[in-house]
Amino acid sequence: MDKEYTTSERIEDVINALPYIKRYREKIVVVKYGGNAMKDEELKHKVMLDLVLLWTMGVKVVLVHGGGPEINEVMDKFGKKAEFIDGLRVTDKETIDIVQMVLAGKVNKTLVNYLEEKGAKAVGLSGMDGRLIEAEMKDEKLGYVGEITNVNVQPIFDLLEKGYIPVISTLGCDKEGNAYNINGDTAAARIAGALGAERFILMTDIIGVLKDKDDPSTLIPEITAEEAEKYYKDGTISGGMIPKVKCCFDAIDRGVKNVVIINGTVPHSVLIELLTDEGCGTMISG
């Protein structure tokens, strides 16, 4: 009897998800998978499985990823200490070589492999491929940290048209071929905007924007641009959350229909957000 009840509940859940499946079928959903949300290998597999499920349903998934912890790990092996200014990694010539090796190599190809072994078709790209992300030096004191000057998403459209999940590492380059380390959230927002995505999901390692950073029950479920200005001033949105929220508004300004910050360390948070009434995290609205 319990088994029958449990099965019925599962079927009911699928039925309840149908309106959302219809909404996102053939629509582009950009998922930014942040470095701090990628530390647990078991959880990483679950996130990839969620994306494969969406892809199987006909959602055009675009995965943009970071890899800060992995970069730090390799830098340690090379005897280099990570240095940050205003949340951006100071990137000298040796560091940009490490960033390129880790992001476009190990991290990108691992995620592609996970998606493929779970049944999807996936192709890895860096922002340097096809001049997807063109950039220039942001500030000399930061070294090879890039300011995006142009985003060319035609390679992404081409892959989506052929049924692939594009997996993108956030490197950029200039006309001279210099590689740049690009802030992952900023790059993902620009890509989502250029694609005209239906949804931009920013996965991080916290539940969303909190009124009290130490109390998850104070989650703010939705923030408008006007409210954000107030939260900047009173310190509710502070530290690393400031650039995340600002890039979300940038995505909206560039044409993304819906943007949300969610906790990527919660199993199936992407599916909860996309396929249920409940949702999760903080929605950013214009």
The DSSP helix count reads 9
Q: SS-based structural class?
A: alpha/beta
Supply the CATH architecture.
3-Layer(aba) Sandwich
Sheet with most strands: strand arrangement: 5-8-2-1-11-13-14-12
Q: How much beta, percentage-wise?
A: 15-25%
Quick structural gist:
The chain is α/β, with parallel strands linked by helices.
Structural account:
This protein is an alpha/beta fold. It has a single domain, classed as Carbamate kinase. The protein contains nine helices and 14 strands. The strands form four sheets. Strands 5-8-2-1-11-13-14-12 form an eight-stranded mixed beta sheet, with helices on both faces. Strands 3-4 form a two-stranded antiparallel sheet. Strands 6-7 form a two-stranded antiparallel ribbon. Strand 9 and strand 10 form a beta hairpin. Helix 3 packs across helix 4 and helix 6 packs parallel to helix 8.
